[in-house]
Write a structure and sequence with these properties.
By secondary structure, the chain is of the alpha+beta class. It has 16 helices and 22 strands. Among the domains are: about 140 residues, no CATH class; about 90 residues, Immunoglobulins (Immunoglobulin-like, Sandwich). The strands form nine sheets. Strands 19-18-21-22 form a four-stranded antiparallel beta sheet, with no helix packed on it. Strands 11-12-13 form a three-stranded antiparallel beta sheet. Strands 16-17-20 form a three-stranded antiparallel beta sheet, with no helix packed on it.
Length: about 725
């Protein structure tokens, strides 16, 4: 039997090998979140935020009863949102209190966030039953946390719900766009060419007879809408204002973190270096489409012995040309000489390149029953935790218990995925760049740009590449009955969904097609994502995820030196039949997995290299910064021993927020002075339980004196030096 029911379940179930009884309550609830995402609409930005907020819920529910850790949102002021917290009643069983609070917090948040999900009824029945199985009353809704951990969990969820309604996501408006409008009319993918496009550098919606998103949900209407072009406006986790630029188009702001600059632009009037770069990038996608044929006789070793271990990434066009193999596919990775965990060489795994490329395109595409790219990295992290693994933070110090390990790592990973969504989609919204299907069909519509002496010449057309992109000539099978297509450009590529009657048994194969009919290797109900190409969200999420896993474990390698995923013959692929042979995806390091994900988007026809590399480089920044930012909450200073005169500031030095501990309740005005005595800022601290947060993000780096002002005479009740770095 082909295409077994195995494919109907999320990847997280394929990764899981340990009984749930051995999981922490955080792990069990994280899997409920992933199941909720896999049944919802495919919205990677929204679900990165859901993963982050549920991770915060679990972490704060653990931290508030830990006695050793600080909370992230609970009892704090975060991005202008004030969460009040009075004294927390003592509990006799800390672990039981943490598990109860975690359960109610995530349960309530899921009920709120997924109430409009297409499978909400199934989800709610499942999590109701899960609560009952844990011995909890799903109908208990009190938020009076003085009554106990269940109410504390409800209160944490309430805080996150209220915070989410003012975080810039437009959750109250269904996450709909508030001002973005596409400049191009829709491309009707069932028809050849791209005759109506106005600007081949800008994103173009697709008109598809029946749109089904990557989670398998039918979408009303036949024309795509850009998902989250204004997501740069959402409040982040570890991203800093100094990382951002604010651009304005048509009177509206677009916030761009880690601005990579504009991608290469096509000039359709003249031949130019930036046009050459644009054409090369998109033509590479077309050439790699010809690799999706397992019968072409090309065999590759896909083991870590031959793939992975990239140490450097290109930063300019010349570097791109040396990094990617345009004709043969793949990159310049040297592989790993030995498995460092065993001391032995990695065993070769020789498979058809066409099988490998197709499997990559589908595995990393995060299609039906997957939890979108940010959720995919939670699935990978859960898989890692099912292997023999020492739970030492950054590979050092004491072994953490399961719950502490999970809530801390989920906070760091969730924060990183959230920041990736804000960064990548902020860039997508501002630069608004086209996808390969727009670019390739649009250039094919113009003609060829190689030789002015050949027919159909246009400076904005496709360059010819012998064996891959050529002219249709007389006698060609593509010339048409009356020769009407002579002079058009043709491509050797994946033939597309019109050659597949039943994807369970058929495959399209590779052959020569009119370039105006080029298809990405995707379902005909999807074709290309409903948002701009530059930069690749997959590359950004994946590299940040790999960096988080590397930092948290203190080891770049998967446990045992290799992570694996099996793809059985004629069962794994769903776009078409395949693979023709069973194969196993193998990764030595988390970064190798990330790099493989990036290449998958090229073989899938979704991204050119110029979308890919900036995403990887930005992910390399976001991942480590998210881990470091999360760590500041893991230790709470012992105020009974560290106060000097009843006063404590930490962290100090700091780059954004300083926690102030002082015997005070309510509002306390403060003045901040430069070291030369100039008053640079006046504000107020709001003390709850003798704690307040001082925002110093708007100060330039340097040393300052913070003075608390109290009493009728406005005298200074304290002074403390703070360093902003």
């Amino acid at each position: 039997m082909k295409k077994t029911a195995l494919l109907l379940f999320p990847l997280l179930l394929l990764f899981s090998v340990v009984a749930h009884a051995q999981y922490s309550i955080a792990r069990q609830w994280n899997e409920k979140v992933l199941e909720a995402i896999s049944g919802d609409f495919a919205r990677p930005t929204v679900h990165a935020r859901n993963l982050f907020h549920t991770s915060v819920a679990m972490y704060d529910a653990w931290a508030v009863y830990s006695g050793t850790a600080d909370t992230y949102l609970l009892g704090k002021k975060v991005h202008g949102f004030n969460s009040s917290l009075a004294a927390v009643p003592q509990v006799s069983n800390v672990k039981a209190a943490q598990e109860t609070a975690i359960s109610y917090a995530v349960f309530r948040l899921l009920k709120h966030r997924f109430k409009k999900s297409p499978r909400a009824d199934l989800l709610f029945e499942d999590i109701d039953n899960f609560m009952i199985s844990l011995g909890y009353d799903p109908n208990y809704t009190s938020t009076n946390y003085a009554c106990g951990p269940a109410a504390m969990g409800n209160y944490i969820a309430q805080n996150l719900i209220e915070y989410g309604l003012q975080d810039g996501s437009n959750e109250a408006g269904g996450y709909l766009n508030e001002y973005y409008e596409p400049v191009n009319p829709a491309l009707t993918v069932a028809l050849p060419g791209n005759p109506n496009v106005l600007d081949l550098n800008r994103w173009q919606p697709l008109q598809i007879e029946q749109i089904i998103d990557q989670s398998g949900n039918p979408i009303a209407g036949s024309t795509q809408f850009f998902l989250s072009p204004e997501w740069g406006n959402v409040q982040p986790f570890s991203l800093k204002p100094s990382d951002a630029k604010v651009y304005n188009r048509d009177g509206h702001d677009y916030i761009v973190y880690y601005d990579p600059g504009a991608p290469a632009q096509l000039d359709t009037a003249t031949q130019s270096p930036t046009s050459d770069e644009y054409k090369w990038n998109h033509e590479l996608v077309a050439v790699w489409s010809s690799h999706l044929d397992p019968t072409d006789g090309v065999l590759w070793d896909i083991s870590p012995a031959s793939i992975g271990n990239i140490q450097n990434y290109p930063t300019d066009f010349a570097g791109y040309q040396g990094f990617y193999d345009l004709e043969n596919g793949g990159d310049s990775s040297p592989g790993h000489p030995l498995n460092p965990k065993t001391g032995l060489p990695y065993a070769p795994q020789i498979v058809p390149r066409g099988d490998y490329a197709r499997v990559l395109a589908e595995f990393w595409a995060d299609g039906p029953t997957s939890a979108t790219p940010p959720g995919h990295w939670f699935e990978i992290w859960n898989y890692v935790n099912d292997q023999p693994l020492q739970r030492k933070w950054r590979g050092e110090g004491p072994v953490l218990d399961l719950l502490e390990w999970d809530v801390k790592s989920y906070l760091a990973l969730g924060g990183a995925m959230h920041d990736c969504a804000i960064t990548a989609w902020g860039i997508k919204g501002w630069y608004d760049s086209s996808r390969p299907i727009t670019a390739l069909r649009g250039m094919a519509e113009l003609g060829q740009s190689t030789d002015p002496n050949l027919p159909n010449y246009h400076p904005g057309g496709l360059p010819l590449i012998p064996g891959f992109i050529e002219m249709i000539t007389a006698g060609d099978s593509l010339a048409g009955q009356s020769g009407q297509y002579i002079g058009e450009v043709k491509m050797r590529a994946w033939l597309g969904p019109n050659y597949i009657s039943n994807p369970v048994y058929d495959d399209a194969g590779v052959g020569w097609i009119r370039a105006k009919f080029w298809w990405s290797y995707q379902r005909p109900t999807f074709v290309s994502p409903p948002f701009g190409g530059f930069i690749s969200g997959h590359s950004t999420y994946s590299r940040a995820g790999a960096e988080v896993l590397t930092a948290v474990t203190g080891d770049p390698y998967f446990p045992g030196g290799m992570g694996t995923f099996s793809c059985p013959r004629n069962e794994f692929l769903v776009f078409e039949d395949g693979p023709s042979e069973s194969l196993t995806l193998q990764w030595a390091t988390y970064r190798d997995a990330s790099d493989q994900c990036s290449l998958s988007r090229i073989w899938g026809g979704i991204h050119p290299p110029m979308d890919d590399i900036p995403g990887r480089l930005i992910g390399m920044k976001i991942g480590p910064e998210a881990v470091a930012f999360a760590e500041q909450f893991f230790t709470k200073t012992d105020t009974t021993s560290s106060f000097v005169g009843g006063l404590n500031f930490y962290p100090n030095p700091a780059n954004c927020l300083v926690q102030v501990e002082y015997v005070w309740d309510g509002k306390l005005p403060v003045n901040i002075y430069a070291m030369d005595g100039r008053l640079v800022k006046s504000t107020s601290l709001i003390f709850n339980n003798n704690r307040a947060l001082l925002d110093i993000m708007d100060l330039t780096p340097g040393m300052y004196v913070v003075a608390g002002i109290g009493g009728r005479e406005g005298q200074r009740v304290f002074e403390e030096k703070v360093v902003r770095y």
